[in-house]
Design a protein that fits this description.
The protein is of the alpha/beta class.
Length: 563
């Protein structure tokens, strides 16, 4: 049964109309805090779901790393904060140590000022952690990651080894240049795929191995230039061969690759696509969801239950408007990079319970407007209170926020320490310089150079041999100039070994450009109405109506592919 719409609203940012349903109200009521037996209701949001997500993402710099000085030790460190940022930045070990105390910065709440103004003042003084990278070994150049070993330039990655240039994944091994992959090994240029082995230049593949240039494959092996196959082996352009013939045909492909690529494009366009990528889901909408149920408008997530407007998250339940939440998180609202239970308006924090408006706080409970705290309780603006004082003061602050029209929204754009084009908001909601500044967002126009050894030889990418056997170890001491952006980049030794093992050419483009091109392969995070090309039922899909692909609804796709 469809949810009942109880309120129609206009987004105060983009003026798009959006709805509030009875289920939404039920959720807001469930997470509303109670002090001294009195509930402080959470108001319905003032921004539409896209603008709410855009604001959260503008606080998350995953991919931009810089060298700068630790303000505690004076040593050079790797940081997500550029050298021009005026804040104190501490190395991870120091930031987690007892050598400093965030409570020293505590301040009384001032009822003559708006809350966000006071929070911003506190935010400017408290030292920030250089990176979010825990439990990792020999993996300095990674961010928003944990339990990595021998990884390089990986972001939002967990429990992985020997992987390089990975964007979003878990439990990957020996993978290079992949985006949104889980449980994959020996893969290269792979996107939106799971449980794949030795698969290259492919997208939306599951439980498959030894694929090359394939899309939408399931339980397949040894296929090249194939699309929409299940339980198939030794296929080329969707025609199946015996093993010996298949490998003979591969020799032909290597000599006529452009012809086969063009034939593959034609095959892709005439082959139906499922309206969204779902694996073992029940009653879910949006795209790229695995093992989830009863979750609406969610994407790029695993094991969600009863969630709405959640993205890039794992193992979470009963949460709304969250990005990058993880590890059995429950009853979270408007959170980014936050974990645990019944907390709202949270940024970059772990193990918080019943807390509000916090940033980089950890293992704490019942805190409000705090930054950088660990193992604390009953704090406001980093100042300690008793339980009784906390429960008397906080309802007054909430009432004050309602009078200043601050109640019900995530942190404002001007509080973010990052420039808009440093954050992943720029990937999903791109803004040019002037438009970003008009929204009170900062802008980064300065390029910081990579670390180039003295007397290093510079080589243009188009001068590199396509044959990896022609590449000597000298490439490790050379600087390559990207043939697209003209930005310099380098090759590291384990990366070179990977290319040699898999007979792959040295990439000709900067890692950032390779990432952008993989992101362009993915559908945008936007649902559109169009009709199923087979039964003509209306469906909601991330394939825009004007796109040329043939799109089927769930029922028609299942009947067509599984019979």
């Amino acid at each position: 049964m469809a949810d009942n719409i109880v309120e129609m609203k206009a987004c105060k940012h983009c003026w798009t109309s959006f709805t509030i349903t009875d289920k939404d109200v039920e959720f807001y009521n469930k997470i509303s805090p109670i002090f001294a037996w009195k509930k402080c209701p959470i108001p319905t949001p003032t921004l539409c779901q896209d603008c709410r997500q855009q604001r959260r993402l503008s606080f998350r710099n995953e991919r931009k790393l810089y060298k700068r000085t630790c303000d505690a030790s004076g040593k050079q460190i790797i940081s997500m904060y550029s050298p021009d940022k005026p804040y104190k930045i501490y190395d991870q070990k120091i930031r987690w140590s007892d050598s400093w105390n965030a409570m020293d910065y505590g301040k009384e709440y001032d009822f003559t000022k708006p809350f966000f103004e006071q929070f911003k003042e506190l935010y400017q003084y408290i030292p920030k952690i250089s990176l979010t990278n825990t439990g990792s070994e020999n993996s300095e150049y990674v961010n928003y990651s944990r339990w990595l070993k021998d990884c390089y330039l990986c972001f939002w990655l967990g429990q992985s080894e020997n992987s390089y240039y990975i964007q979003t994944g878990r439990e990957d091994k020996n993978c290079v240049d992949c985006s949104y992959v889980t449980w994959c090994q020996q893969c290269y240029e792979l996107v939106d795929s799971h449980q794949c082995f030795d698969t290259h230049f492919s997208q939306r593949c599951t439980n498959s191995n030894n694929l090359s240039h394939c899309i939408d494959m399931e339980n397949c092996s040894f296929c090249t230039f194939c699309v929409w196959l299940v339980n198939a082996s030794y296929g080329i352009l969707n025609e199946l061969y015996d093993k010996d013939t298949y490998f003979k045909k591969l020799q032909e492909i290597s000599q006529n690759k452009e012809i086969y690529q063009n034939q593959f494009k034609e095959l892709y366009l005439k082959t139906p696509k499922k309206y969204g990528q779902f694996i073992q889901t029940d009653n879910c909408t949006w795209n790229v969801l695995l093992w989830s149920k009863n979750s609406e408008y969610c994407f790029d997530s695993i094991s969600l239950e009863d969630c709405k407007y959640v993205s890039s998250s794992w193992w979470s339940k009963d949460s709304y408007d969250c990005t990058s939440i993880n590890i059995w998180t429950n009853l979270m609202y408007q959170a980014q990079g936050a974990w645990w239970f019944k907390s709202i308006f949270i940024n970059d924090s772990m193990s918080l319970t019943e807390s509000m408006y916090c940033d980089q706080c950890f293992d704490s409970k019942n805190i409000f407007g705090c930054i950088g705290l660990r193992t604390k309780e009953f704090c406001i603006l980093n100042k300690q209170y008793t339980k009784e004082e906390y429960e008397i003061l906080l309802p007054k602050i909430i009432e004050h926020m309602e009078k200043t029209w601050e109640r019900g929204d995530f942190f404002s754009n001007d509080i973010s320490v990052f420039s808009y084009n440093e954050t992943i908001a720029q990937e999903y909601y791109p803004l040019d310089r002037d438009w970003a500044l008009s929204l009170w967002c900062k802008r980064m126009d300065q390029e910081y150079p990579i670390n180039i050894p003295e007397n290093a030889q510079t080589i243009k990418a188009h001068d590199l041999s396509e044959n990896i056997n022609d590449i000597t170890d000298d490439i490790l001491n050379q600087v390559i100039i990207c043939e697209f952006t003209w930005k310099p980049f380098r090759i590291i030794k384990p990366e070179l070994e990977f290319y040699r093992k898999h007979n792959l050419p040295i990439p000709h483009k900067h890692p950032d450009q390779r990432h952008r091109e993989r992101m362009l392969l993915r559908n945008p995070r936007k649902l559109r109405k169009r009709v199923c090309a087979k039964c003509w039922e209306t469906i909601h899909t991330s394939y825009a109506p004007e796109r040329p692909e043939i799109i089927y609804c769930e029922s028609c796709y299942t009947k067509e592919i599984y019979g």
